[in-house]
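Quick entry between incubations.
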Amino acid sequence: MIPKVRRQQIVEMLSSGLRIDGRGLEDLRGIEIKCGTVANADGSAEVRMGKTLAIAGIKTSIGTPFPDTPDMGILIVNAEFLPIASPTFEPGPPDENAIELARVIDRGLRRSEMIDLKQLCIIPGKAVWEIWVDIHALNHDGNLMDASALASVAALLTTEIPKAVVNENNEVVIDKKKRQKLPIKGIPATVTIAKIGDKLLVDPCLDEEEVADAFITATFINSKLCAIQKRGERALTVEETLKCLRIAQRKAQELVKLVKEVTGHGKD
Amino acid sequence: MSLKNKEIMLITPDGRRLDGRRPDEIRDIKIKVGILENADGSAYVEQGDTKIYAAVYGPREVHPRHLALPNKAIIRCRYHMAPFSVEERKSPAPSRREIELSKVIREALAPAILVEQFPFTTIDVFIEVINADGSTRCASIIAASLALASAGIPMRDLVAACSVGKVKGVLVLDITDVEDKYGEVDLPFAMMPSRDEITLFQLDGVLSMEEVEKAISMATKACKEIYEKQKSALKARYLETRKTIEGITT
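Done. Structure below.
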């Protein structure tokens, strides 16, 4: 019943062009990205979007490639919505929301070909790098999707892995002293738009998220789409959907610019 | 895995696909409503080699009770693949993929259901993939929305669904497993055709904004075609029921 009252308030404010936290419809919340905060991870990034806080940690290991892609490294994305992040999160294995988030981010990273997985092959069919992206939600104030995606991208951009060489016995030897960046081909950006009534809002906060009709999450790579996910229990018209994608496209450019500034990517 | 295999000719120079279809052609679709006696509503959908059963139980009491809502029915959905439905045996335990699909299918059906009419209850949708040959979530939505309708649940519209893929740069409708694995894109799509509203929209693969627009218009057209088939399958079910009743009374 509380969401009903909340929704009424949010919808009324929206009709006069105002959001509950004072933002314009297409404004992102303040974003703060901190890279390399976890010393034991090969790469890490903490992202704050307003009061939402997510952290992504990258661990790497050497494993055997999948039989259908013997010459490609492996990318695995997992997300945990920890009970520390929200009174509504419970301990236990990832629920459908956490699984969906991880899979949407995985599609964005994979389909954007952000990392050149071919370059992560050490011995074809035998040894490749495995890149584990683990996302932890630490404080949930809406739009964990974009915060987690941004944290994952920033963490991957600043990841350094040891050098792996193949010796004369065809064994993989790791030279921990020599570290190198991951082979990066591009920078994807993920933007979520919420629909409340007939209004479309960028980067929904928790109050907005709870009363929203539907969401479109879109990941862009060089102004092309590489992943989309419609979420929520209501429908969108074709016009609304296309409008969401166009807004997301503009916002994605802002995010790419920001992540480049923070990580210094493309400057070396 | 978008492994590009050059040996597989996904589309011929004259625009024919592996199974002879044109890019904007959907597979033959066979629909039967009301095939599982125990369910309140059920449907079977066959689209090429993709074969799906859907059953609806409810509105019924919610267990565990604390999940019930005072203002509307909850919807629970389980998309499940039989271990034998794919090339290599799949563990019957729900995979991450199945958990995500169960959620997006629920969210594709929910906009059509008048849940406010059944407070404190649950509407349970069970989907079983018996054989998978691409576009299983779309076929599941086609079947599940008919199962809901045949359970007598009030709905705004049926939900029709169709996937769009991209092979060798060409957008194609209703992709098969091979076109999904070796193609460039999978874009599952569902809508309420008489309301022109989108209820499921996903993209896995790279498309330009223009291509996405084109894919939506192709999928919309296909959904309207499928919608007609859904309606006639539903009508056929009611005609059958009528015949049975008339047989009893005369």
